[in-house]
Design a protein that fits this description.
mainly alpha; DNA-binding; homodimer; 10 helices
Chain lengths: 219, 219
DNA sequence: CCTTCTGCGTACCGTACGGTACGGTTCTGC
DNA sequence: GCAGAACCGTACCGTACGGTACGCAGAAGG
């Protein structure tokens, strides 16, 4: 995705390899394991090069976020005509992808890092993480529900509010719990189904069965 | 884990004052501002006393969590008969309280601290925070929706799942965003209204108007 | 008045970090 | 083949942390 190519430094292969090692250290040992000396040792490079490439520690962290974001691409297939079933499928696929991304080791580690740095006044890393990591997935979902509305399958006034509803139904407090160290869900797919069913019940134009919501017997 | 009252060390007034200073430092400057020397200076006590009272740094952090949790008590008023309006009011009150708690400076700072410490293997602090900080509010909500079901006002199979739905509708990704340093909502009450309206639409037994959901014109 | 205990203030220790400097080695362009 | 850049490995510096030790002041109690 070339878009917003402006603030993407595009690191060299060598630098990307170093960033990969940095992510590995971070995932395996948390922030305290990510030291300049440790990274230089793990990546077989010199500390001097680290400072030459990334400026200082914060620059390194920012580069790690950019590097990770550059690996996550979301495909925008917006061609086909939407049917109710197709919309549901796409929403569920989005929900599963979202849950999978949020539960990923690297995502959790980077979020922990940025949150640990943040204060009341805000956080440079936090902003970076939200912009780089979130924009893609937000765009994908917004495009999808917008398309659903244009196809007459969804109804809402505020697309942003509807998206936040969908997000909340999918994720609930799971993200924070995982950030705090709790294990993830056993079955992401089931959670995705239930969330999308609820979302369609709230914002769908066609009558929805409540079965998947767990409001009727048998499960 | 045994009874809840047992593992509450009940610190002395002096110690509570020190913990209060510790929370202040943490809120104002993040984890890096909470050093033993800094705390001793701010609280006019000696480092030796800190180690005598709390053992080590992790003990201090745990004590801070316990201290903060001991300040937040939720009242359980479960007497009265529920009507649909009353249930809605109580749910909205819960939603507003939840949003207010999550947006609190101390809550955010403690969550940032615990998340920053956490790794893949889990976190002692994270467990503590979830147990001490969350149990109260979880219980209150569970009691409420359980009561709603017994009164025939709500329907669901799995109370836990229903509660998570409610939680997700109320909070969405707001908690993580605030943890990352973004400002909170402008109007918690409005968010509470919309979340409860959606929840009642999903799990209420009486027909709900969709007005508050933003699916009809005019707002 | 004397003793004992608690706790404050300070000095101290070992360690480990972020960041810099330098000698030696490989790679690149001409 | 050579000059210069890029880079590695290591040593080094200042700092600040967690944790410990010690001297001294009050308060409690007899």
């Amino acid at each position: 995705m070339r878009a917003d190519a402006t603030d993407m430094p595009e690191f060299s292969p060598r630098q990307n390899a170093v960033l990969e090692q940095a992510l590995r250290l971070l995932v395996e040992g948390g922030e305290k394991a990510l030291t300049t000396s440790g990274l230089a040792r793990a990546a077989n490079c010199s500390k001097e090069s680290l400072y030459k490439w990334f400026g200082d520690r914060e620059g390194l962290l920012a580069a790690m976020i950019a590097h990770q974001a550059s690996k996550v691409r979301t495909f925008e297939r917006s061609g086909e005509r939407l049917t109710a079933d197709l919309l549901r499928d796409h929403l569920e696929l989005f929900a599963r992808d979202l849950l999978e991304v949020l539960a990923g080791d690297v995502s959790l580690a980077l979020n922990r890092l940025a949150i640990g740095q943040a204060t009341r006044e805000g956080s440079k890393l936090g902003k970076l993480l939200l912009e780089h990591g979130r924009r893609q997935i937000d765009r994908r979902a917004m495009a999808l529900i917008d398309q659903g509305k244009r196809a007459g399958l969804l109804r809402f006034d505020n697309a942003d509010a509807a998206y936040h509803t969908l997000y909340g139904l999918i994720v609930s407090d799971l993200h924070v719990r995982m950030l705090l160290g709790e294990p993830g869900l056993k079955d992401n797919a089931r959670q995705a189904e239930r969330a999308v069913a609820a979302f369609l019940m709230l914002h769908g134009t066609q009558k929805q069965s409540a079965d998947a919501l767990g409001v009727s017997a048998g499960r």
